[in-house]
Amino acid sequence: MKKLELKFTNEDGKTVNYSIDQPVEPVDTATVNAAMDEILQQNAFTSSGGDLVAKKSARIVERIVEEVEMQ
């Protein structure tokens, strides 16, 4: 399953992650940047370390799980 991971910096200088399941691909970087700017402008989220103050990064993360058969 793929996720779009948005990383922000909070008032304490720590990284805060938010994940969005099943992002539209290919990812439009301008749209992601605009969405992150809007989250900051609206002060839409907070964290235990205070408000979000800056964008840090965004990335697509894919996790592949392969079961191991037990006998």
Per-chain topology:
Blueprint: E1 2-10, E2 15-21, H1 29-42, E3 46-47, E4 50-62
Antiparallel strand pairs: 1-2, 1-4, 3-4
Protein name: DUF2922 domain-containing protein
Pfam family, one: DUF2922
Polypeptide structure, described:
The chain has 71 residues and is of the alpha+beta class. It has one helix and four strands; from the N terminus they run ββαββ. It has one helix spanning 29-42, and strands at 2-10, 15-21, 46-47, 50-62. A four-stranded antiparallel beta sheet has the order 2-1-4-3, covered by helices on one side. The protein is flat and about 50 Å long. The two termini are 27 Å apart.
Task: Describe the structure in brief.
This is DUF2922 domain-containing protein. This protein is an alpha+beta fold and about 70 residues long.
What tags apply to this protein structure?
71 residues, alpha+beta, 4-stranded antiparallel beta sheet, 4 strands, 20% helix, flat
Quaternary structure of the protein: single chain
Kindly name the structural category. Answer: alpha+beta
Radius of gyration: 15 Å
Strand line-up in the sheet with most strands: 2-1-4-3
Number of helices: 1
Task: Tell me, rounded to a whole number, the average pLDDT.
Answer: 95
What fraction, in percent, of the residue positions are helical?
10-25%
Shape: flat
Low-pLDDT windows of residues: none
Proportion of residues in extended strands: 35-45%
- Number of DSSP strands? 4
